[in-house]
Design brief:
about 70% helix, mainly alpha, 38 helices
């Protein structure tokens, strides 16, 4: 073994080093090598130690183990550790530190077990490293056993150990045990509070995180940047991004985590224009450089807005900030889907070609994008290419491919799912329900739904939406009742699906009852989509005056969807007055849409208001709008 023999080619350290006579001096030099990660000088010192006859000294061997571990030479550290006749906790800690720092969780846990068998008594330095490994791997069972060792060996009052226990329990999903450890601590530091607040946020106990901030300040602790970033994250996850912004404005020197938390928060609640504004401010200030997580979130907002120009600029910015491999590994999927959303298939394909083809995420993004572009054949071909490469699918792959399937290929995919390991995955069954509903096979969709071992909100909402799609409003209402009895409280999306189903099935009375239950009994604040459904419900039933009255009483301004539903129903029921009102509102809301001008001009012509019809036509021409094909300026009279 090369590390044990002096090497003639290695020059001597210096005249001073040849005269080293005390282990304290050698220890000092080894510490310098450890601190500076200087492996080659450390090896020379090792040779010097052997030449001085200290090669078998347990103290020096322990220090050498530490030096090799610090210098990332794990093999040499292990060799020396094995030579110790009685392994000690200091040598053990050095190797555990290496495993913990390098994400080698299972190796860390295994080595901890081996050292215990060899009689090493763990202490307050060992436990945090092993607990960190348990947290990283989510190994809850081992973490509980380590906690028992903490108590057995009398380290339950150690501050660092308690902080590590809080972190381990939180990351393993047992926030109650984390809080129990926190409450039993005889002393706490800032890390204790931050760990507990972070644990609450990690496990979605968001209000508890905010409340703990107040308790922390009452106890005299001053929140630091980590605290504020974590609480900002809690507010953003609760949808209270404006509260997060208030905290952000009070931070003297926000870091990239602060900015990214705010950006991702507003992106999550759909305020994508605000997301872009925040990112623009961050870049213009130049105090913080964005990271890949931040860039990816902004690209997602560009996708939702269809902001191609901004997306391209951020694409260029990202490739300058990061290496190509790192950029496309992290932001590639969001960038690809952004280009697809903007119908730039060539750009999307170019991004895909630059992404890692051995990463399933790359293929998932491409398959999903082709499905969204209604290029079903190409999406399925992409799926087949992925299979031919031997890449393993995941639930996202199947969920992305199913929207591209017709009934025949969807049945084949169904058979594939039953043969594979995806059968317990709820998201896959949800995608299958949607596929059968979309392909007109509602019975098969309901069969899949009925045979699911467990369901989530998406399962119920997708099935209710499927019934609505097929005009089975009463079946949708019955399923809503079953959902409530199952213990799941219907959410905003559920009621959108039910209201839409009632509208398409002509169930006016039942639909209005559902709306009242949603607002009065469950206290759900209606969104624009709920109001649109109620208007559509009233309009389809011929209650046009009621629909207009409902719109006037709405706390939000009716958008083009709402007035479009009124216009369609008014035309169907030949109510010219309401149709004219709807057309006027559509021209005001969407002045760049030529079809609205044509419809309104035709309405004026129908009632003989020729001057108004001409005025509308001239207004359209002044905006440079082109009359869409299929429309005529003449219905009951000649506008020329």
């Amino acid at each position: 073994m090369r590390i044990w023999q002096p090497h003639r080619g290695i020059p001597s350290l210096s005249a001073t080093s040849l005269a080293l006579s005390s282990s304290l001096e050698l220890n000092h030099l080894l510490q310098l090598c450890s601190k500076s990660k200087a492996l080659d000088p450390g090896r020379q010192l090792h040779q010097q130690i052997i030449m001085c006859g200290l090669g078998h000294d347990s103290f020096m061997t322990t220090k050498l183990v530490q030096m090799y571990a610090d210098c990332r030479d794990l093999e040499s550290a292990h060799q020396l550790f094995e030579r110790l006749s009685q392994p000690n906790v200091f040598a053990c800690t050095s190797i555990l530190w290496f495993y913990s720092q390098n994400g080698m969780s299972s190796e860390c846990v295994d080595f901890y077990g081996e050292t215990k068998l060899r009689g090493v008594v763990p202490d307050g330095y060992v436990f945090p490293k092993v607990l960190r490994a348990c947290a990283q791997s989510g190994n809850f069972q081992v973490g509980v056993l380590v906690h028992k060792d903490v108590i057995t060996f009398g380290a339950e009052l150690n501050l660092q150990v308690c902080n590590s226990l809080i972190d381990m329990y939180s990351k393993c999903g047992d926030v109650e045990s984390a809080r129990r450890v926190f409450d039993q601590m005889v002393e706490r530091d800032l890390l204790s509070w931050n760990s507990m607040i972070s644990g609450y946020v990690h496990n979605e106990f968001l209000k508890s995180a905010v409340d703990l901030l107040d308790s922390m300040r009452l106890k005299g602790f001053v929140p630091d940047l980590v605290t504020w970033n974590t609480v900002m994250d809690a507010y953003c996850r609760m949808g209270q991004c404006d509260e997060a912004w208030k905290i952000f404005e009070g931070i003297k020197e926000p870091n990239v985590v602060s900015w990214t938390t705010l950006i991702s928060g507003y992106s999550r609640i759909g305020k994508h224009q605000v997301t872009l504004t925040i990112f623009r401010n961050m870049v213009s200030k130049g105090e913080v450089l964005s990271d890949l997580a931040c860039i990816s979130n902004v690209i997602v907002s560009c996708r939702h807005l269809g902001a191609l120009t901004w997306g391209r600029e951020i694409h260029a910015y990202g490739t300058k900030r990061e290496t190509w491999f790192a950029f496309y590994k992290s932001a590639g999927p969001a960038l690809l889907t952004m280009y697809a959303r903007c119908k730039r298939l060539r750009d999307a394909t170019n991004v895909f070609n630059l992404m890692d083809k051995f990463d399933v995420v790359s293929w998932n993004a491409m398959i999903s994008s082709l499905s969204d572009l209604r290029m079903e054949n190409r999406a399925l071909e992409c799926f087949r290419r992925m299979q031919n490469m031997g890449l393993g699918n995941n639930e996202t792959t199947i969920s992305a491919a199913l929207p591209a399937c017709d009934l025949e290929s969807g049945k084949q995919m169904h058979a594939y799912i039953l043969r594979s390991s995806f059968s317990p995955v709820i998201a896959v069954w949800n995608a299958l329900i949607h596929m059968y509903s979309r392909c007109g096979h509602i019975e098969a969709a309901y069969s899949v739904f009925s045979n699911m071992a467990s369901r989530d909100f998406v399962s119920w909402n997708t099935m209710i939406g499927g019934f609505g799609m097929h005009g089975s409003g009463r079946a949708a209402l019955q399923l809503l009742q079953q959902m409530s009895h199952s213990g799941l409280c219907p959410d905003s999306t559920t009621f959108t699906s039910v209201l839409s189903a009632c509208s398409h099935s002509g169930l006016l009375h039942e639909g209005l009852q559902v709306f009242r239950r949603m607002t009065k009994e469950l206290g759900i604040n209606p969104g624009a989509e709920h109001y649109a459904c109620v208007v559509d419900l009233l309009a389809r039933a011929g209650c046009l005056e009621d629909a207009v009255g409902f719109i006037k009483a709405m706390p939000v301004e009716a958008d083009g969807r709402v007035w479009g539903a009124v216009l369609a129903a008014a035309q169907a029921h030949q109510n010219v007055r309401v149709a004219m009102l709807a057309s006027q509102r559509l021209v005001h809301l969407e002045p760049g849409h030529a079809g609205h001008y044509v419809t309104l001009a035709n309405m004026y012509a129908r009632v003989g208001r020729w001057d108004d019809a001409v005025r509308v036509r001239k207004g359209m021409e002044s905006r440079g709008l082109v009359k869409p094909s299929g429309y005529s300026w003449v219905e009951t009279g000649n506008l020329h």
